[in-house]
Amino acid sequence: MPLLLSKQIHKKAAYAVWNIQETFLELPYLSPEPFPAELHPVRQAEWIVGRILIKHLCESVNLEYHGVGRQDTGKPYLKGHDVQISISHSFPMACAMVHLEKPCGIDLELPRDKMDIVKDKFMNESEEEYRDDLNKICAVWCAKEVIYKIHGRKYLSLKEEINVNIKDDETIIGEIIRPKDQEEFLLHYEWVKDYILCFSV
User: Fold this and answer.
1) How far apart are CA 78 and CA 99, in angstroms?
2) What CA–CA distance (Å, rounded) separates 160 from 82?
């Protein structure tokens, strides 16, 4: 199985990354729970692998896996346990995270020229210094997605209500700047193959 990474972040959290190399005929046999057969094959592959990763992470922290559900907002939750999870995929890569105590977020993306084209939709003036570097544009996008997931996938403007400050080659400080809902987050980012992976710590 192409499990690329499986790491303990600290005692309360872990993450894992998968490179999808299985065929669309092979993946259903690996699914840890019934999958929606009506999904497009790529989406079906991402759905299955996301749950494979969560099951793997449950085993790593001694939790029994009962499946993954979705809240009305689309935020995933682990059935039968009061712990937090997050899932991301950018085919053929997928990743997931579990945190035993607090909301968490993980995201991975391949830096693409399209991000440079749409950067004005998610980057604000405080992030001006990153606008000419595609890798940093991608890191900003990933960080904002992580914060959006931590927030619970409730409406939050990536451009107007989230600021990102890339401190060094591994650390990002993000913050929600919405009135009466301000919060700061410590995020880690790294390269996995050609992808940028970002997660909360």
Assistant:
1) 11
2) 32
CA atoms within 13 A on the CB side of 109: 21
CA-closest candidate to residue 186, choices 156, 166, 158: 166
Q: Which residues pair with 70 in a beta bridge?
A: 76
**Cβ distance 171 to 143 under 8 Å?**
no
Inter-residue contact 10 to 201 (CB < 8 Å): yes
pLDDT tier at 2, thresholds 50, 70, 90? confident
pLDDT band at 1; cut points 50, 70, 90: low
pLDDT of 113 above 90: yes
Q: Which residues contact 187 (CB under 8 A, 6 or more apart)?
A: 143, 146, 147, 171, 172, 173, 174, 198, 199, 200, 201
pTM of the full predicted structure?
Answer: 0.95
Which domains, from first to last, does the chain contain? 3-104 (3.90.470), 108-200 (no CATH)
Q: List the structure tokens of 84.
A: 């937090």
Q: Which amino acid is at 191?
A: W
